[in-house]
């Protein structure tokens, strides 16, 4: 601002002085002589102005250097909720199928991302999560830290480990994409990361035949994914709860597919997913005509593989493969279904449903109370 004001003042003075010179020359000299004299005066005056203002501008720039533009990055705002917590206050959570659900589920997920970035607890130079040293001990410490911030339940311990693993793996991938260039030398790559001890070991691993083979296999597997879902970071269990709350219908695998594979308005849909969604709608109409209801099980009430046989999802996508369950997300595992008693699972699901209803009612009562207070105030 100072340099701009100086320039304006000097230019204003120059124009006034120039006008006086022009008037004098025009009245006293011939046209050719006037032109030569006017040109010389302008050059001399501009040189004088530059000699006076140049040092001021340079000094002004040195005293108030302009900071470089800061690149906006994602992620930092996800933990802003910590600043709003009062002393002793904890974030409330809802749980379903061994995973946090509801409005605050993203908060504990973001905090797991923060925990995963601790390179001392979870070193990034370990090639695979299964070889992480002192993993159980560090996970116990992470759970204790989470319990200090959230109303925690031990039923999500398995989910926490998976989430930290997922975030740790994603952080390694991001570091490789942002800081590692295969065309550069190791010396050039080593100068690019803050933790140089771990970074050096990571460079060695990324150059190894083992990693290159693993990377090629991963790329080949990714190319096989022709129909990506559009459910975002929200878990399939969360999507299922939303379906049942908003439509009063069972959140079957087909219903979850309809919700998570639908693109936003204005975007080009995937032709394969659109064809699958059309088949789901056709099967739903057929079931209603023949049976009067939907016989598919909700993924929130799933207790065994037998419940999935013949559902709309398997009719379109094919039979299940050993070791995994499709269309239910990462929270529902085969080992959980095999190892759990059906009666216990049903009881837990019923208890979770009751708790969700109670929380929903409490929120509605809170809104009514706030409205009453506003009307009376």
What can you tell me about this protein's structure?
The protein has 15 helices and 2 strands. With 377 residues, the protein is mainly α. The chain has 3 domains: 62 residues, no CATH class; 145 residues, no CATH class; 117 residues, no CATH class. It has a two-stranded antiparallel ribbon. β1 and β2 form a beta hairpin. The longest helix is centred in the C-terminal third of the chain and has 35 residues. It is globular. The chain starts with a helix and ends with a helix. Pfam families: Transposase_24 (PF03004). Keywords: Coiled coil.
Any chance you could write out the topology, listing elements then pairs?
Elements: H1 2-28, H2 31-63, H3 81-84, E1 94-96, E2 99-101, H4 105-116, H5 135-147, H6 157-179, H7 186-190, H8 196-207, H9 209-223, H10 236-247, H11 253-260, H12 271-291, H13 312-317, H14 334-339, H15 342-376
Antiparallel strand pairs: 1-2
Low-confidence stretches: 28-32, 55-63, 70-74, 339-346
**Share of residues in strands:** under 5%
Oligomer: single chain
| SS summary, helix count | 15
Helical percent range?
55-70%
Give the number of domains: 3
Q: What is the distance, rounded to the nearest whole angstrom, between the alpha carbons of the first and last residues?
A: 48 Å
User: What is the gyration radius calculated from CA atoms?
Assistant: 33 Å
Helix/strand/pairing class, anyone? mainly alpha
> Which strand order does the major sheet show?
1-2
Order of helices and strands: HHHEEHHHHHHHHHHHH
Look at the structure and give the mean pLDDT: 78
Pfam families: Transposase_24
Keywords: Coiled coil
InterPro entries: Probable_transposase_24
Coiled coil: 345-372
């Amino acid at each position: 601002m100072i340099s701009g004001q100086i320039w304006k003042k000097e230019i204003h003075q120059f124009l006034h002085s120039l006008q006086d010179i022009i008037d004098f020359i025009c009245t006293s000299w011939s046209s050719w002589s006037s032109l030569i004299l006017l040109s010389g005066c302008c050059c001399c005056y501009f040189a004088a102005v530059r000699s006076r203002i140049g040092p001021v501008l340079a000094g002004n720039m040195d005293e108030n250097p302009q900071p470089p533009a800061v690149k906006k990055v994602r992620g930092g705002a996800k933990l802003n909720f910590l600043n709003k917590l009062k002393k002793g206050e904890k974030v409330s959570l809802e749980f379903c199928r061994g995973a946090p659900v509801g409005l605050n589920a993203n908060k504990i997920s973001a905090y797991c991302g923060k925990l995963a970035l601790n390179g001392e607890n979870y070193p990034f130079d370990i090639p695979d999560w299964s070889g992480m040293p002192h993993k159980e001990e560090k996970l116990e410490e992470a759970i204790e830290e989470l319990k200090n911030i959230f109303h925690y339940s031990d039923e999500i311990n398995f989910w926490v480990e998976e989430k930290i693993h997922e975030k740790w793996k994603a952080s390694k991938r991001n570091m490789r994409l942002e800081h590692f260039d295969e065309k550069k030398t190791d010396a050039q790559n080593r100068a690019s990361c803050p933790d140089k001890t771990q970074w050096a070991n990571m460079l060695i691993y990324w150059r190894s035949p083992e990693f290159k083979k693993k990377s090629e296999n991963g790329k080949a597997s990714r190319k096989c994914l022709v129909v990506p879902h559009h459910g975002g970071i929200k878990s399939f269990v969360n999507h299922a709860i939303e379906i049942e709350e908003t439509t009063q219908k069972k959140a079957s695998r087909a219903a979850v597919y309809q919700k998570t594979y639908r693109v936003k308005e204005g975007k080009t849909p995937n032709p394969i997913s659109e064809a699958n969604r059309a088949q789901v709608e056709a099967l739903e109409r057929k079931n209603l005509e023949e049976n009067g209801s939907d016989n598919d099980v909700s993924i929130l009430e799933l207790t065994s593989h037998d419940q999935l046989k013949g559902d709309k999802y398997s009719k379109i996508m094919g039979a299940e493969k050993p070791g995994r369950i499709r269309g239910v997300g990462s929270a529902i595992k085969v080992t959980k279904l095999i190892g759990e008693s059906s009666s216990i699972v049903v009881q837990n699901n019923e208890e979770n449903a009751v708790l969700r209803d109670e929380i929903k009612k409490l929120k509605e009562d809170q809104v009514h109370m706030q409205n009453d207070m506003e009307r009376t105030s």
